[in-house]
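Hi, here's the filled form for the chain we discussed.

Project: internal
Contact: R.S.
Residues: 747
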Amino acid sequence: MIESRARAEHPHDPGTRASGGWVIVAFAGLVGIVLAATSQAASATVVGPAEPRPSVSPRLSAATQAELMSDILPASPPITLTDPVTDGAGALTDTERQDVLAAVERLAAESDLRMFVVYIESFDGTDPVDWANASANQSGLGTEDLLLAIATVDHEFGLSADTNVPLTDGQLGQIDDAVASAVEDERWAPAATDAADSVRTGVASTTSPLLVVGIAVAALLVLAALGYVLWRFAAPRLRPLLTQLRDRTPVAGGPAPDAFADLTTDELDERAAAALVGIDDALKTCEQELGFARSELGADATRDFELILEGAAADVREAFAVRQVVDTEPRAAAPEGPEAAADTSGDDASDDDAPSTAEDPVRRARLTRIIALCDAAADTLDARTRAFDDLRRLQQRAPELLADVVAREAEVSRRVATARGLLTQLSRRYPTGPLATVVGNPEQAELLIANAKEAVAAGNSALAAGQKVVAVAHARGAQNALGQAVMLLDAVDATALHLREAVGRLDKSIASLTQDVVSAKAIEGDLRVTLARAAAQASLKNVEVTREGGDPLAGLQRIAAAEASLDAALASTRDHTEVRARASALLRDTLRRVDAQLRQTGDFIATRRGAVGAAARTRLAEAVRLADVARALHPTDPTAALNEAQEASALVREAARLARQDADAVVAAAAAAEAEPDADGTDANGPISGGMMLGGILLDPHLVRSRKRARTARIGGGFGGGGFGGGRPAGHRRLGTVRAWWPASAR
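And the returned structure, exactly as it came back:
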């Protein structure tokens, strides 16, 4: 056989060298496995000591326990345990019992230890640890079982554990300290949950030093071998490719400082508002689509996308916060006087046409920041669009999605009649004010259900024609339309419940304010108290007059404002503890009302996002932020927290007013458009009319043809009917016409 010259000159070809490198990696890995296995075997002697060792909580041997059992008083004898949690003192609510059970189950799932918890009223003079040891011995608990006994009347506890339990003295001391702190504060459920979590953490941290060293050495060997292989063989081949990628990769970070130099401040303001609306719509669409995926695939499969969505939402929250500052700060005044006239009297016509980029630089910087944050959020969402679509396998599952919409449609349709009847009952009892955001929901839901049916029919036709991409767009649109219909009907139920609760709380609020008025009458000569008392009396009178058939939410709002004002006037006459307690109680009531208003307004915007502009969304986002601030301040400064909550309440009411105003404008424009049909009498938009358009659910642009545009309607929202991404839909806004019913009473 003749050996080639190339083989003779290069006896060690790249393939042979690569094979040798991977042999090194394999050998290093084998060494690591051997070291880890050796250290694991050695760790058996580390975790379980040969000799019993003392514990921070004194525990008795089995023989001593048997001797002392006779010394326990008959009034509190040791018990035989049958359940992980035994509450003989009635110290736990059902929810707290579930929390304790969950903590005990976490310990059992993540370690070899089990914990039993017993609540009794008193140890009757018996040493708590002796009582716990005796009960553990009587129940036949093993070496891996712990028993925590808590006496609620005595405010004492005892922890029984085997002397060879794999916990150090320091760890046992930490467990004792955690339980002692909770028992001292009468936090019975946290006493057990903290103990179980401390044990679980302690067991997890009890790791053999030899095992750690073995794993570290093995990892270093593997990394060293792998690094040698990459440096020797892979790096020379990857270097040209990396250079090309670096040259092609665009630089991120939002628009360049002069990207909007050719725009006036007003034009930049409009661009920022459009960006906010677009990304907010994209977030809402992503949340809805993520909910579909979670129900189909489970929470574990979608957890990464939830984190992505949270990151994008953080950027959007910051953008809305900046927008709130822009909306509330005073506008820079235009130059006046002879100087201004001189500035505008130049002979060069090109100077007249050029935008003034120097005007209001602070405002321009903030508007640019809003656009940059929206772009960052859009990048975050768009980067995972393909991965999300791959996760759901929509093209393969399009028939399944369409069939699911058909199966759910009948149930949702039945709810429409129920919601309409409920609204009829509510309208007989309450004025139009508290029902304004839901009065049109049944009709809007009907439109969405009809759109979903049309989208399903179009999707099935696309499947029959082999157009899977088109079928997926229709399936997503149908899913989102049905989801919005459910949201609309749920909002009616929530409003009815909110009104019933408000009626129940109104009597309590009136009684509280009446008592404050009586207290204020005893203080004379203080003008502030006198004025606050007069305002409170006027509020009480107004609520009494309008109580029958009036708005209980408005009544609560008026009573709460009067009570807060009177409390502030009387603060100097009360001790600090009473002032904090009253502010805390009023804060809880205010936050309960604000949360309901936030949900109601948020649902309204989400289901009319094709019409609602940036102002309403900005007020809603700021109200959410202030409500969170109020919750954070509640434990330390309830008075300041109450001020934040009251501001949130005012902002959410303003958001609801602006949102309804925007929706009315779109519906009015739609009515005008309906009066001018297309020349051929056809509807070019297919199934994207009515509820889907008002709800911001648009199909992919290449599926839609529009011959007419609503001039004043702000039609926005993420296109594609759904999906993860679509953070820049502004280029597809003002698409199509809206056909929607909207009652005059809600305008």
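Let me know if anything looks off before we file it.
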